[in-house]
Amino acid sequence: MKLNDLTPNSSQAGGTLTPAFYLQLLQHFVEAGSYEAALPYREDALTAYLIETMADPVITAQVLSDEVSARVFLDTHIQFVALCLKKAQYRLQRTTAERHQIMEAEQWSLSKREAGWRALLAQVDEEYGEDGFERTFFEQELNTEEGGVADDGKWTYFLNEWERLLRARMESEKHHFVNERKTMEQRLLQTNLRAVASYIQNHQIGNEDFYQTWALMGGRWNSLEFERLQQVARLQRKYPLLMEVVKTMGRKADPLGNKHIGTTSGRSETMEHASRSDINGITMGRNLNALLPTEWAHYLDAELEDVFLQKYVTGQLQTFEYQSNQLHATRSLHQRRARPQGPMIVCVDRSGSMMGEPEKVALSLLMRLTEWCQKTRRDCYLIGFAVRTLPVDVMEDRAALLRFFQQKATGGTDARCMMDQTFELINSHPRYRGADVLWITDFRIPLPPASYFAEMERLQQADTRFYGLQLGVAENHWTKYFDRIFQLNDIRMTVV
Predict the structure, then answer these.
(1) Which residues have C-beta within 8 Å of that of residue 10, sequence separation ≥ 6?
(2) Which of 240, 471, 211 is CA-nearest to residue 349?
(3) CB of 37 within 8 A of CB of 53?
(4) From CA 358, how far away is CA 237, in angstroms rounded?
(5) What is the domain count for the chain?
(6) Are residues 123 and 23 in the same domain?
(7) From CA 59, how far away is CA 403, in angstroms rounded?
(8) DSSP reduced 3-state for 349
């Protein structure tokens, strides 16, 4: 991430910066230890608190030296950011009627202004008199006898002042909330950093196992809850098929996982020195058959090998220039970028038939998938479905992901709403085109109308792939519509 990527969107009412801004700020800090890009926005209470925390040299050293500490720091603050933004949203909703009243007053006719300005002025004074509203000034400016309310400029100025006071009130409440909680949050961070490091060391927990479990703890360390969630994660060892599903969802264009793929095309001619020719001088290039002895010495010296390779790539090797040359026809070698790991859409059945071990297996697989997506920065969209759907953008809303894991399976199953959301996501959002779509379900799902399967086929032709993990041995009428369905038979199903 580049510093200039931190471009906040403060268009929301109340001047609230977007969740993406805070997330990018935190991610950039754990990656590079830098937060300078946030300094222009330090008047925002939450940003100011984060800057204060990131400026602590002890915390910076911990975060940059240890991946686990970096993750603990990130998730602890993501939860606090989510809480602050939830409070900001609540404040915004609370003022909906007042903001609507301001917008209505902008459209008042002259007769309505003349009839209602005094009552409106009294209302604003009652609410904001102690916050600096100058009632006397506006009484003089809007006086009907002097034609004040007929002046659009004066009327707009009054309404703008009202809106400014409203925004200032909301920002003041935000400052108060952050300042009230920041000491508690700082203590929580220190506790998390210390307790997690100690637990991992004493119990020899691997980083990957820790990441999966910690992601579901809501930024608060609890050893008992950690051990409970670890039992869910360990189902991946009990059912090796889950890891096969993960690998399938991690497709790349290049099966070896290279960032670039070498290809040959066309014909070209290269100039090489002819055998038994005279040396004409010294030149620069990458002809290994004409290297000076000093360049060979660099190549053979382990400490200078990188220098040699750099000079070879840039064509700066010192070589003999021969008096005569000969042409050779060759195929030219090119490199193209491998197709990056594409986006992922995971649809998880949360109906009553998934209760018990199927639900735990589904969540265990989801833990692995979401952790892997976060690690590789792969876009991932989660859709929980039963009678209704619960959509979550995994990369942008960690708090919603946590709430998803806390909900229990219940109700019936209808795939149509989930499929509608999947299709809309792929067709309307370019970053999800060509996605890998995974269903985690027992496939006890009624078939939808034929139009749904026609759309699936159209998307498959456009490089979207549909996979399924079937939990249990129920009769499956969906198989022919999927690229592949994995089946986990040896699992205890709950009779509903």
Answers:
(1) 16, 17, 18
(2) 471
(3) no
(4) 15
(5) 3
(6) yes
(7) 28
(8) strand
- The DSSP symbol for 301 reads S
Residue 434 lies in a domain: yes
Please tell me what DSSP assigns to residue 259: S
Among 312, 337, 362, identify where a domain stops.
337
Residue entry with tokens 């050779």 = 328
Whole-number Å distance between alpha carbons of 451 and 103: 44
**Strand order through the sheet with 380-385:** 389-393, 380-385, 344-349, 436-441, 465-471, 484-488
Half-sphere exposure of 69 (CA within 13 A, CB side): 18
Q: Do 299 and 435 fall within a single domain?
A: no
Report which of 454, 369, 394 is spatially closest to residue 419, judged by C-alpha positions.
454
Find tokens 């220039």 and name the residue. Answer: 321
Euclidean distance between CA atoms 197 and 199, whole angstroms:
6
413: exposed, middle or buried (Cβ count in 10 Å: 0-12, 13-18, 19+): buried
Within a domain: residue 217? no
Host domain of residue 372: 344-488
Q: Do residues 321 and 380 both lie within one domain?
A: no
pLDDT, position 2: 39
How much is the pLDDT for 93? 85
Please, where are the H alpha helices in 234-302? Answer: 235-238, 241-249, 293-300
Residue 204 lies in a domain: yes
What tokens were used for 440? 């985690």
Q: Are the CB atoms for 127 and 120 separated by under 8 Å?
A: no
Asked whether residue 330 falls in the same domain as residue 436, the answer is no
Predicted confidence (pLDDT) at residue 387 exceeds the cutoff of 70: no
pLDDT in tens, 50-81: 999 999 999 999 889 888 888 889 888 888 88
Contact indicator for 217, 226 with CB cutoff of 8 Å: yes
Q: Does residue 27 register a pLDDT over 60?
A: yes
Clarify whether residues 266 and 408 are in a common domain: no
Neighbours of 78 (CB within 10 A): 21
- Asked if residue 254 is part of any domain, the answer here is no
Residues 331, 357 within the same domain: no
